[in-house]
């Protein structure tokens, strides 16, 4: 099935889970809000929406934003859109989803995966390992989540 983030070609209350990783950050904010509205429409009661979004306050993300003068991404481009926890909660809440839980996904990267280690140079491997360690430490010290570069965002249909 092929569709648009704002117009999912699915019946209402027909899906147990929606998953998006490293995609929504490249869409205009309005489209992402539209996606969350569609998620609320197509998820079964209690269904889960699990997405990854980049954190505005991530350590590496602040440097990336500084490089472009802290301006928003240009409309219609593939540029990264950064989200604060407040913006995420507001977008999801306005769509009608609930029980928002935000966890650290990664540090110094948007999508660090241990399964990709064999693809990286020594420095790349080091970034992935440090990122994954940061994710684990943030479970013990949740305050560190605030400077994660990448968030896992889970919400639920009412």
Structure description:
This protein is α+β, with helices and mostly antiparallel strands. 34% of the residues lie in helices and 22% in strands. It has four helices and four strands, in the order E-H-E-H-H-E-H-E. A four-stranded mixed β-sheet has the order 1-2-4-3. Helix 1 links the parallel strand 1 and strand 2. The chain starts with 14 loop residues before the first strand and ends with a strand. The mean pLDDT is 95.
What composes the largest sheet? 4 strands, mixed
If helices are DSSP runs of H or I spanning 4 or more residues, what is the number of helices? 4
Mean pLDDT: 95
Strand order in the sheet with the most strands = 1-2-4-3
**What would you report as the Rg, rounded to the nearest angstrom?**
16 Å
Described by the principal axes of the CA atoms, the overall outline is: globular
What share of residues are in beta strands? Answer: 15-25%
Share of residues in helices: 25-40%
Unreliable spans are none
**Strand/helix succession:** EHEHHEHE
Structural class: alpha+beta
What is the end-to-end distance?
25 Å
Number of strands: 4
